[in-house]
C-alpha cells in the first residue's frame, strides 16, 4: 500500500488520509476519491493530497476485518457489519466466552495492521454483549496477513465462541449443628436458588442433616438424581479428611481436589459421585457476592466442568475480596458491559400515494407480496432489534397485508398532514431501551438488509457518528439512522419533508456511509415506475436459481 502525498493526476481511486475542508468543499478522512472528486479538488486549487493507494497485494480495511472476524467467530457469536476497518463480535446467548488465547495471540502477531481485542477467557456474557473487536489499523492489510490469519483460525475449533449455559438441575444438602436456626439455612436455600436460576437452572431438591460423616453419607446416597450436588457444611472444611470429604467418599464418591486460589472461595471442594459433579461449598457461598464458587458453577453450567488443573489456574484475577482498589463491585454499582446498539427500524407506510391515482402503491402486488413487504422484510432481516410499521392511508389493509410478520403496528390518524406526522407517531412508539432509530420508507423496495446493517455498524455517537446516511455515487439516500438525542427535534417537524432537513444543522455529528447499493436512491412513486419495477422483479425471480436444485 502506498501512503503519502499524491498529485491529483494520480489520486483517482486513492483513499483520503485526512479530512479536507475548503469553502463549501468538505471531504472526510477515508473517502475514496472519484474522478468528480479530483475535478472538484483541482477547481478548489488543490495540487496534491495525502492519501493511501492500494495495490493488488492489499485487502481494503473493511473486507480484511470482515474476513478475519468471520474466520475467528464460532458458535453463538454474531459478526456485525464492518465500518472503518472495524468489525465487532457479539454474544448471541447467555454463557461463557471461550477463547483459544494462543491462536488469538498468533493472529495479533502476524502483522501490525491486524488486531483482535477480546474479553477475558471464560468471561460470563449476555446476549448482545460485545465479545471482541477486529480492527485493521491502516486503510488496508496485506493479503498475505489476512490469509495467514484465516489459516490460523481454521486450525482447530473456532478460537472465539460462546458456550451457552445448560438448564442444570441442582440438589442441595445442608448440614447443621445443634442450635443453628432454620432461618439461616433458609437464607442459604434462597441465595443458592437465585444463583442457579440466574444461569438457567433450577434448585430441584433440598435436604438437611446433622453435621456428621455417617448422617451426611446417608443423605448423599438418598438424594434424588440431579445434574449437580451441592453440600453446604455447618462448619468450614479445614482438611480433605474433614466431615464433608469423608462423607462423600463413604457414599461412594471421589474427592478430586480441595482448595482454590480464589478469594473469597478458597475452601471449595471438588468431588464426583459416579458421573455427577459434587461441590463442597465454602462459607462465602451463603452470600450473594461474587466468589470462587460462582466461577466453578458457571463452567459446569456451560458444559466445561473444571478439574484440578483448571481450578488451580484461576489464581490470576482470582482476588475478588474487598480491597481499596476495587470498591465498585462491592458498592452495588454495576458497569454496563459493551453491547450491540439497540436500533429500532421504523418503516413509514402511511402515505396516500397521491401520484399513483386510485392505486395504493404499498399494496400493489409484486411477486405475490405487497410492495411494502420488501421494505419490512429487509428491516426484519437486518440487525435492527425490532421493527415498527406506521400505517395511515388504508391502514387496516396495510396491516392485514403484513399480519404474518413480527412487527409492531402504529396507526397515524393524521397521515394527511405529511411524512412528519408519521415520523412523530412512530417515534412515540420506539421502546425506551432503543438507542437509535433507522427511518425506512415503505416505497423503497430495493434497500437491502445489508445497507441497514452497515448503518448500524457505523453508528457510534461517542465517536461523533450519531446520524448515519448511506451514499451511492456521491448522493445521499435512505434509510437514515438517528441517535435518540435527535428524537425531540424530529418530533417537532411539520410538513412532508421528513427529518432530512435536520442533517445540515448537525453536520458535525453526521457520518456518510458509502454503499454500492443504488437501491438507496430508488423509490416507486408513479404508475410507470411501479409497472417497471414489477416487471423487473418478476424477471429477477424467473432468472434466480431454484434452491431445490442447487448442487444437483
> Structurally, how many domains make up the residues?
4
Give the terminus-to-terminus CA distance. 43 Å
> Largest beta sheet, briefly?
8 strands, mixed
Tell me what the CATH architecture of the largest domain is: Alpha-Beta Complex
Strand content: 25-35%
The general outline is globular
Radius of gyration: 30 Å
The CATH class label of the largest domain is Alpha Beta
Number of strands: 30
Category by helix and strand content: alpha+beta
Mean pLDDT comes to 90
Helix content: 25-40%
**Helical segment count:** 15
Which stretches of 5+ consecutive residues score pLDDT under 50?
323-334, 542-552
CATH topology of the largest domain: Spore Coat Polysaccharide Biosynthesis Protein SpsA, Chain A
Q: For the record, what is the CATH homologous superfamily label of the largest domain? A: Spore Coat Polysaccharide Biosynthesis Protein SpsA, Chain A
Task: Tell me about this structure.
It is built from 15 helices and 30 strands. With 552 residues, it is an alpha+beta fold. Strands 21, 24, 25, 26, 27, 28, 29 and 30 form an eight-stranded mixed sheet that branches. Helix 2 (61-72) packs parallel to helix 4 and helix 3 (101-108) runs antiparallel to helix 4. The longest helix has 17 residues, at 182-198. The two termini are 43 Å apart. InterPro entries: Bifunc_Mopterin-bd, MoaB/Mog-like_dom_sf, MoaB/Mog_dom, MobA-like_NTP_Trfase, Nucleotide-diphossugar_trans. GO terms for molecular function: kinase activity; nucleotidyltransferase activity. Residues 171-302 form the MoaB/Mog domain.
